[in-house]
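Worked Example 4.2. Consider the chain below.
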Amino acid sequence: MFGLGDLESAVMDVLWDTVEPVKVRDVLDLLDTPRPLAYTTIMTVLDNLHRKGWVERELDGKAYRYEPAIGREEAAARALRDILDSSGDPEAVLLHFAQSVSQEEVDVLRKGLRRKARRQ
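Applying the procedure from the previous section yields the following structure tokens:
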């Protein structure tokens, strides 16, 4: 995910794929990484994600339970927005992107633009 490191992205994937808020140990057990990771590493990553506003946490006894603060789709949309804002030429980026989309994606974009026009 744009703006996140590899491990942060992997942790967010775990959180997005779980139904209930989870503890650090749960995240560690669910992570699929090529090398073993320490409990404290995942705890630090979750703390950093909390500080960045990516996750929410609630104290459950002596440990926190974590859940995503935003959904995967919203995070992807924010990443696209960040890319457009930092590109220097958002129009060119959008035109290149438009050339790469499928007909189904064109239909979805048109539907979304019509909704936006009606709200304005």
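Residues 72-119 form one domain. Residues 58 and 64 are 5 Å apart (CA to CA). Compare this with Example 4.1 before moving on.
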